[in-house]
Amino acid sequence: MDPTENKQMLPLTAIAIIAAALFSGHFGVGDTIFPPILGRDTGTAWFIAAMGYGIINSVGVLIAYLAVARQQQTLLQMSSKALGRWFGVVFTTMSMLIIGPVFILPRVSSATHEMAVALFFPNCPLWVTLLVFFVLNFFAAYNRAQVIDTMGKLLSPILILFMAILVIKGLISPLANPGAASTKHALGEGILNGYNTMNALGASLMGGWVLKDMALRGITNEDDQAENLKVIGPIVAVLLLLASTGLTYLGASSGFAYDAEIGILTVNIAAGLLGLFGKAIFAVLLALACFTTSVGLTSTAGDVFQELSAGKLKYEPIVGLSSVIGFLLGLFGLNTIIQYTTPWLMLLYPALVVILLSNLLPNFERVKNATAAGIVTSVLFSIGDFLAGLGLEGNAFLGFVSKLPLGDQGLGWVVPTIIVILIVQLLSPQAKAE
Prior knowledge:
Blueprint: H1 12-26, H2 29-42, H3 46-71, H4 75-83, H5 85-99, H6 104-120, H7 126-142, H8 147-172, H9 186-197, H10 199-216, H11 222-252, H12 264-308, H13 315-330, H14 334-358, H15 368-380, H16 383-389, H17 396-401, H18 414-427, H19 429-432
Helix pairs in contact: 1-8, 1-11, 1-12, 2-3, 2-9, 2-11, 2-12, 3-9, 3-10, 3-11, 3-14, 4-5, 5-12, 6-7, 6-12, 6-13, 7-12, 7-13, 8-11, 8-12, 10-11, 10-12, 12-13, 14-15, 14-16, 15-18
């Protein structure tokens, strides 16, 4: 008997709307600017770099959604199981602040001004763009029941269409050919660039957001919600992989025609491929990518902080406060925001990977001790990269970790974490329990 035979599945149109909304929620400024610069820097090794990017970006998103579906739990619940609720609250709070009002919202809003509005209205003040952006953001996210439909039916199709036009044009008539790679670690470069999108971190939080949306659509049984998410998650991951791979190729081919910095390179590619129309397409594409990401994460923050406060904080005020914080921090500008974002990602992402992978297993209790040890180890061995990201590149932690396997690619935490997990699992009495 088919285990999904008696499940309440969403109509295909609803699945498509939710998947499109999630894709547009994930596809933000990072996915617009990082793959092209990655492709140009890795040249003929662009495909390997794109796969590295996909490991963190797309596969990470898939793992996150599957973990949420298997456990039928939010990130707060999954992280609390390993090291207690105190850890779950701290980890989830830091994660939501990073991908929400403190980092991502100001990043996408300031990027909208610098890379879209300023292209055509150079005299427009930053604060004007941010004010309009966050007023619209507030109204789009305020009605919890309509957020995903607004994104999936209205905003996402335009985003996908404009991106498809740009990528297809670059495939048909590229401006140049891929050149020699400027790095020996194309895979590692792809992985590190994938960190900057924060999509796996976002998916671990947005998974709970989607589960709540299903309840609003009348699917209240947790098993039914999980089955639907198992269908939606892979669709989102594939869309992200196709988009990032296409943009990486654009950087590797057309990007070699320009000696431009991150962000400006993508503008130059679009203008080179399609002229003034391409420049306009890029501006709309980036603005939509930033806005849909902002709306999705603002709404997610409303759900997450309402859960963290056990209902004491309400969804609507959180949406309003997130918009205000995003506006104020966005005034610092895109470059400043990117600089203070990456170190925190290097610290939290490894722990997130351990949490998500362990929650894919059928019996978490049997790996609970090993998971806790793995989380602690991953954080300890990420301190060097975290400090380096803050400007302390000569720190002792980094000097030690960089000598470990994969250490020169920012992944020195991987082998020690695996070893600790295996040792603790072998010695753990829970592992032997039936």
